Amino acid sequence: MEYLNNGIRTIEINEVLDYSDCSMKYYYKYIHEESKGKYADISEKYDKDIKTTLYSFFINRKLKNEYKLNVLKKSWGSNWIGSKTSKELIFETTGIKSKTEMYRQKGINTIYDVYNYFKDKDIEIIAINEPYKIKMGSIEVKGKWDLIVRSIVSDNVIIFDFRTNEINEFDIKYNIKTTAGALAFEKQFGRREDKLIYYDLDKVKIYSITRDELDVEMYKKTTESIVKGIENDIFYIKPNEKCKLCQYKNYCFNSK
Q1: Which CATH architecture has domain 2-252?
Q2: Which residue has the higher pLDDT, 89 or 112?
Q3: Bridge-partner residues for 125, per DSSP?
């Protein structure tokens, strides 16, 4: 989170999500000198690298360049490098080689799925990994749209949110990242989207979702509360089942 000269506090939507997930995760990811800027888990690196690869596919499609599947696979290979992966993690993880290979293969499967889903779609690509800002009082939230398209057939504008983490019913109903993206779209383009879609990259499932005033209010209240928590240095350990897989636990459980 940053403070601008005009008194505006600016925060990334991913920071809001991380603090909401666990305030200590936020602290070690964005503040603690030894750990900030590194991945807590190999799944975080996978999320970034697979999306970077998919963005290249959509960019070339928008430019009307021929972009074959084998080129996309090579792009994934150059993004996902095992020797580099271990250096970008906070701690040496047991079984890192087998995990690296597992995610490499998962990425290949995802590439096939996304390529086959979109290759024959009659669409106009509006935005790819495009940044947005949405202001709410003295708080400015920044994020990125994964993909926005317009269907040539129906003229519907569709916002896609690519997900690599597990999607549950609460996510589908109340995810504040999706709400922020929808609000920013309406402000920037002067109209509402026709569809909001979660694309589950792991299970190859499509979830069409809606947003209403309750979702907007929840987004605003959640963001305000989290910004206040960060400003007041409110960071606390919240043990749950996620701790088992979180590499930050090595800091949390040994903190003074």
Answers
A1: Alpha-Beta Complex (3.90)
A2: 112
A3: 149
